[in-house]
């Protein structure tokens, strides 16, 4: 069997396992969590490079016209993307930090790989990584909780977590080396099943418990498919807030998979667990089993490049926006300017890349002044679209319903 076939089979195997409900029970998860120990960043040794704390949780400026700040996180204002290009400029790219942006010395930095899925532990300097075959991809990083506040404002439901609107997404051009290239260079064993990158940021403490470094496993099939280890964003060195000197970029998967400040990668011949795949980033609630439902891929979403509650003139205006889906490119986008009663097809503009987004525009001549509700509804290449409502989950992930965007015409 050649390597590609092996990789494909592993991914299929992993997906089949999930589809047939061969999940782990909550007790299994707790037992495993106990086995690896609290803060179970096992085997990494000392951190790969000196990290020091920056002055605040986020280093770059966060002007209020570009961002809404929530503690250690900053959401992009959609109106600030109007008239920008296909990529989100770094000065307005959202930031999601569990703790704080660390400042890491790129010279002493090392990426450490270890675990039962490798022939031996090995480490790479940044220069060594840069001598491997390089690659550039355009891909979105989007938080699983993007749109979370809409569970409450549209569906009247209680959810916990950062109350994002739709600005916890950014599309960037990422340059680096494929994770698969690094894994093979590191001496990947054929029985490896999971790959878990971990960050060099401070350990995440929740409810007084030290959960260790931010980390979440990827199945080997995904790790060998299209995952990148990036040191550049939009043709410039990766900025501190987005993971310098090296971050993981996992196309089409929830943002937590894309570990920033990656200092170590565990490669294992057995399934790996961390709080980020047992406690967080699972769907909990009435529609789900007690141990929750693991999530990985994103859903279909759309946003207008307009302020929330924007004021528009009582004359012809051009509405612009973007739509995206983890399943592939967008087939079409329909817009309603009357709260969902009638729909018109938007004109799509520019590239329509898988793993990124499709920009669109449509003219609107409001007939009356006052409050109006705009809705954009995308359909992707697989026919997947945006429903009127989505099932509740307590942590507020994957809000893929049609968003009712309020505007005032005056
Ligand atoms: N080490 C580390 N990696 C991390 C995080 C973090 O807090 N620490 N946050 C994750 C989450 S939840 C998201 S949504 C993305 C956000 O990437 P960005 O801040 O570059 O937009 O990074 C992910 N990688
Ligand atoms: Mo996230």
Please render the helix and strand layout as text:
Elements: H1 3-19, H2 26-36, E1 51-53, E2 67-70, E3 73-76, E4 95-96, E5 102-104, E6 110-114, E7 122-125, H3 126-130, E8 135-142, H4 149-155, E9 169-178, H5 179-186, E10 194-199, E11 205-206, E12 209-210, E13 218-219, H6 220-223, E14 228-233, E15 236-237, E16 247-249, E17 262-268, H7 275-278, E18 282-283, E19 293-294, E20 301-304, E21 310-312, E22 317-324, E23 330-336, E24 344-345, E25 347-352, E26 358-364, E27 370-380, E28 405-409
Parallel strand pairs: 6-17, 21-28
Antiparallel strand pairs: 1-5, 2-3, 3-4, 6-7, 8-9, 9-14, 10-13, 10-17, 11-12, 14-15, 14-16, 18-19, 20-22, 22-26, 23-24, 23-27, 25-26, 27-28
Bound molecules: the ligand Nc1nc2c(c(=O)[nH]1)N[C@H]1C(S)=C(S)[C@@H](COP(=O)(O)O)O[C@H]1N2 and molybdenum atom (MO).
Shape by Cα distribution:
globular
Q: Characterize the main sheet.
A: 5 strands, mixed
Sequence stretches where pLDDT stays below 50 over 5 or more residues: 1-11, 16-47
Strand order of the largest sheet: 7-6-17-10-13
């Amino acid at each position: 069997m050649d390597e590609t076939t092996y990789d494909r089979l592993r991914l299929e195997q992993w997906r089949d396992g999930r589809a047939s409900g061969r999940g782990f029970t909550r007790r299994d998860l707790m037992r495993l969590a106990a086995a690896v120990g609290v803060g179970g960043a096992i085997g990494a040794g000392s951190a790969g490079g000196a990290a020091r704390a920056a002055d605040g949780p986020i280093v770059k400026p966060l002007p209020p016209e570009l961002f809404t700040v929530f503690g250690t996180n900053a959401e992009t204002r959609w109106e600030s993307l109007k008239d920008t290009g296909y990529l989100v400029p770094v000065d307005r790219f959202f930031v999601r930090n569990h703790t704080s942006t660390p400042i890491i010395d790129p010279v002493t930095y090392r990426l450490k790989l270890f675990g039962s899925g490798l022939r031996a532990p090995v480490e790479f300097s940044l220069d060594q990584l840069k001598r491997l075959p390089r690659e550039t991809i355009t891909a979105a990083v989007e938080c699983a909780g993007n749109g979370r506040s809409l569970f409450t404002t549209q569906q009247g439901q209680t959810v916990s977590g950062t109350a994002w609107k739709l600005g916890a997404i950014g599309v960037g051009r990422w340059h680096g080396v494929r994770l698969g290239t690094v894994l093979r260079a590191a001496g990947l064993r054929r029985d490896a099943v999971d790959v878990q990158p971990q960050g060099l940021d401070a350990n995440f403490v929740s409810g007084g418990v030290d959960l260790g470094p931010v980390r979440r496993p990827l199945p080997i099939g995904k790790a060998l498919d299209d995952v990148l280890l990036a040191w550049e964003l939009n043709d410039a060195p990766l900025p501190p807030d987005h993971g310098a000197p090296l971050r993981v970029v996992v196309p089409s998967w929830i943002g937590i998979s894309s570990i920033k400040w990656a200092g170590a990668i565990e490669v294992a011949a057995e399934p790996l667990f961390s709080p980020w795949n047992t406690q967080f980033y699972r769907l909990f609630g009435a529609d789900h089993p007690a141990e929750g439902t693991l999530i990985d891929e994103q859903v279909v979403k759309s946003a207008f490049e307009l302020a929330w509650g924007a004021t528009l003139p009582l004359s012809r205006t051009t509405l612009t926006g973007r739509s995206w889906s983890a399943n592939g490119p967008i087939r079409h986008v329909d817009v309603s300017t009357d709260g969902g009663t009638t729909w018109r097809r938007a004109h799509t503009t520019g590239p329509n890349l898988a793993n990124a987004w499709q920009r669109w525009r449509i003219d609107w001549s409001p007939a009356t002044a006052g409050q109006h509700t705009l809705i954009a509804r995308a359909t992707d290449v697989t026919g997947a679209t945006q429903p009127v409502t989505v099932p509740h989950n307590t942590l507020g992930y994957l809000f893929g319903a049609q968003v009712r965007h309020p505007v005032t015409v005056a």
